[in-house]
Design goal:
This protein has 258 residues and is an alpha+beta fold. 29% of the residues lie in helices and 41% in strands. Strands 5, 6, 7, 8 and 9 form a 5-stranded antiparallel β-sheet that branches.
């Protein structure tokens, strides 16, 4: 009787294990397959641009495939983040895993580096996917720009991004945006910074200072700038002083304090 019971338990455990494996495995394989297709499409785009060929059609096919992946509600943000990073896509996520952003460079064979990005917000039954930087079916545009390198949580449904972009040899663009999700609207906040849709500042390319954010005090720190003088003349370019100024998040808006 005891031997029969042990045999039954082994068989039952084996059936359970196989059932679990079957329910998880196709999901993982589909994500891996999707990301490999995405990798191939992006490699095709890079190859065309390296050969000075038109890359728009390949780029738009890549973006459509990426949207298809991001809009698949079965894929969890953490799984997507890991799979995309393993395939050399630049992706950042919030500490609560609800928001991820993926960026890719628009290759113009020049010194100007501009990017397009998507954001994906997934929480319970909510799923939002849209362009963070750039527009659909447009390769080169003024809407392309900096890519997000950090994202911080402001509250349950609002986040701040810290962004950067190299502008040829002269300067580096630092910027910040707020993305919010509520019952009435979702996306980049148009009035979360005083007198602007976002925060922007240009610093010298060789300057190493970046934007900083204090998640406790909700303060955004940005480099203080001063005119760059060469041989007694103002060059029209700014340089950093090594000090920081700050904006404070109050009542849904970042305001200057100094």
């Amino acid at each position: 009787m005891k031997s029969a019971l042990v045999l039954f338990m082994i068989l039952f455990t084996g059936v359970n294990f196989c059932t679990t494996k079957k329910s998880v495995l196709p999901h993982t394989l589909n994500l891996n397959e999707d990301v490999l297709i995405l990798r191939k499409l992006h490699d095709d785009y890079k190859q065309k641009r390296a050969q000075h060929k038109e890359g728009g059609h390949t780029l738009f096919t890549f973006e459509k495939k990426l949207i298809e992946i991001l809009e698949n509600s079965q894929y969890l943000n953490n799984e997507l983040f890991n799979a995309l990073n393993e395939n050399d896509f630049f992706t950042v996520k919030s500490e609560d895993n609800k928001l991820i952003l993926i960026s890719w460079e628009i290759l113009d064979n020049g010194c100007h580096h501009s990017y397009k990005s998507f954001y994906r917000y997934k929480y319970e039954d909510s799923l939002y996917v849209n362009y963070f930087v750039g527009k659909e079916n447009i390769e080169f545009s003024e809407d392309n720009g900096a890519y997000p390198y950090k994202v911080h949580k402001l509250n349950d449904k609002a986040y701040i991004t810290l962004n950067t972009q190299l502008v040829c040899a002269s300067s580096r663009l630092l910027s910040s945006h707020v993305i919010h999700f509520n019952n009435k609207s979702q996306g980049i906040c148009s009035d979360c910074f005083e007198n602007s849709k976002g925060f922007y500042t240009n610093i010298g390319r060789r300057d190493t200072l970046n934007l900083k954010f204090d998640s406790v005090t909700k303060e955004l720190f940005y480099p203080e700038l001063t005119p760059l003088v060469h041989e007694g003349e103002d060059t029209g370019v700014k340089k950093t002083t090594g000090k920081y100024k700050k904006l404070v998040y109050k009542n849904g808006t970042f305001v200057k304090t100094n």
